[in-house]
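Hey, can you fold this one?
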Amino acid sequence: MNFLHHGTGNRSDHPSSLHHIMAFSMDTRAMLPDTDSSPVDPTLFTGLPCLPGVYRFFGEQDELLYVGKSINLRQRVKSHFAARHRDKKEARLCHLTRRIEHQVTAGELGALLLENREIKQRQPIFNRRQRRYRQLHTWRLQTNRQGFLVPVLYRPLVDNHGWQQDSYGLFRSPRQAKGMLDGKVREAGLCPRICGLEGNGKGACFAHQLGRCQGACCGKETVESHNQRLQTTLEDQHIQAWPYPGVLVIREQNPQQTDYHLVDQWCHLTTLQHKPEPMTITPDADASFDLDSYRMLIRFLDQGVEHYVLS
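Sure. Predicted structure:
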């Protein structure tokens, strides 16, 4: 079962929907009300359950306006309309909405995974623009000729097994990666020259002259000490290697539904509503490593969500 197949045939799935997005100009937005006190069509809420899931707002031309998630669909959708009296964005969204669609999930994780995927795939008009970063950046430590560990920026092949080993941080750009490293180096009093943040030179680095480096660059700190402090300060950025011997199944359940989320190498493969069998797994067509999904999975596993290894 494909996790994202809804059978709705929305025109927002097709390239022609780009015309509607481009046509939704700033001039058009300026013509919309800042607040809205008009009556709400009660049929918009028909069938919305008080259960976890994802909801979608559609406009006049059936363009996808917004995708959201909640542990209580009915309450969350109604909150958009309640806020339209005081919030400009909510007023504009509600003014344009002509129908609302929903998909129930068994729990919060399923709702988060589905919302994350749909926003990145379908680019709803009112959602903050997101995209799936297939080329991420991470730091790895390499030893130079003097024996110092040096952070080297690395672009992992995230769909290959084992890439997380000895990696620190996941970043969407080199600038973001260097910003993290620079902050860590300053915080710990490490040498920015040795860590690759300053150009090559002899003697004390500029940071040492300012009292921000403990002197590994000029012999005042040993190689062993600097290496140990670098590893310690980066420890909270250490990417968790995939700790399971196979495909992980995360089970979520409510009185109406059970979902089985299949995950391998931190990649969300698919979600099923029946217990999976090892020989019948078909990953979704777009299944690949996603930074936001990785963080969601780590958080829920740390919280003790029910799971087992498929065997």
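The longest strand covers residues 257-264. Let me know if you want another pass with a different chain boundary.
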